[in-house]
Amino acid sequence: MPSSRSAVPAIQIFTAPRRYGEHLSREEVAEIVAPPSDVLELANAWLEHHGVHPSTISTKHGGSWLTLSGVPVSRANELLSASYQLYQHIGTNDTVLRTLSYGLPAALVEHVQSVAPTTHFGFPRTPRQEPPMRRGGETTEQTKVPGGDPGTVLSSRDQDVTPSFLRWFNKTSSYVPSAVDRNVLGVVGYLGDQPSPDDLRQFMNQYRFDATSAAYSVVQIVDGVYDPSNPTIEADLNIQYTSAIAYPTPRIFYSTGKSDSQGDEFINWLDYVLGLWSVPQTISTPYGMPEYEVSPDYATYVCNLFAQLGARGVSVLFSSGNDGVGRGNCLLQDSSGNSRVQFLPNFPSTCPWVTSVGGTTGYNPEIAASLSGGGFSVLFPRPSYQNNAVPPFLLNLGRQYNGLYNPWGRGVPDIALQAMRCPVVLKNEPWETAAGIISLLNDYRISNGRAPLGFLNFLLYGRCLEGLNDITSGSNPGCNTDGFSAVPGWDPVTGLGSLDFERLVAILSRW
């Protein structure tokens, strides 16, 4: 049960360009988000009045979050004027305990932002699974990769995108991390996803034989599981590619929640990591859900938690999705029960306090991947850092797709990286590469006595813009439309473009 006191106004001060790098401690963030003492007393009195014993109430983050343990469903129904029942997802058969509505005392309504679990039914999902990439086939314009693995041959199309290619293409091959005792890369797994150390070893033997000793640690959160004998391809992929790009930077895999979890996976993980004295400098998360599945109060609260991570010096990257502007016919019902078509961006990618990563494909030229998720948030307004970048795109778009998207919403993605033809894995997986590159940039900063980057977007849309490769070709079809097109400048297919590590290092070296 989180307080409605927002941390964003105060936290924005410490992520804005003029204060960049002045990150906050756990205690400083908790002080910002803590509710007034009289509000906390009021909430505790209400709970005790309904038979919730004080010993079952715990507070976290300066009292901004109250957790109740051992409360039976009957008491929760009475407490919240709710009707909790088990609900099963038609597509996945996942079961959760939820209520269709709930209520709070009038004196608390303005102070409580969200109660969970209640009406939030969304399940974090990995990108849609596709058949494994086919091998072989005709190639054209074949080229040896400078500094690549012996015998590595690449082409401008129809060729596996290996770690050697990614390191060459993004210009990280010659960089050797040196702040490995002060820089950590976190990878988050939900729904029981878990990697295998044996798979990682085999992957590194095949694709980066100078890093076969690469390993990772595992943290199990709430009902997280870890059984390396039963790995999932999504978790394997995340660990393998972040390891291949960022080695020897330490990596932590966070196992959070199972598919039948009754809790909330995003909040469970955020609650844990925000409680740490020392947090990872970079975090990669591929999971998301269509924004329309998320209630505004829940989305706002979770987004504010990501803002807290940014203020503590954490760079958080989310996939923008792999369904273009939306999967299927994109029919939604409005409040009157009428059906209408609407483009479907993904949350938490649409949260303005994370960096949203789309996909590209090919080189010479690099173009937008057709599956790259992109669009405009319905829940979150356009953040200030996009005020110069987004309007030119909308002006050129004109009246096309009027009514299918929110032109005043937060635009996604922010950046894009190679997303197609990763060997033995699935389509559209650019965020691990992005997280690996950002982790290397954090290593550069830390090894030179500077603070980690933290929240990235003010930098990306500002002084680091010249360190990006603008993508001007391709589109992201969906919802039975051609989708948006990649154009000069920002666009809702590839964002500002792909990362050039060497140019970004040169920019960061000047301040």
UniProtKB/TrEMBL annotation:
Keywords for this protein: Calcium, Hydrolase, Metal-binding, Protease, Serine protease, Zymogen
Pfam family for this entry, one: Pro-kuma_activ
Residues reported to bind Ca(2+): D470, I471, G489, D491
Statement: the UniProt record of this protein carries the keyword Transmembrane: no
Occurrences of domain Peptidase S53 (ranges): 160-511
GO annotation, biological process: proteolysis
Cofactor(s), by name: Ca(2+)
Highest rank taxon of the organism: Eukaryota
Record InterPro entries: Peptidase_S8/S53_dom_sf (IPR036852), S53_propep (IPR015366), Sedolisin_dom (IPR030400), Tripeptidyl-peptidase_I (IPR050819)
Region of interest: Disordered: 119-157
Name of protein: Subtilisin-like protein
Organism of origin: Lactarius akahatsu
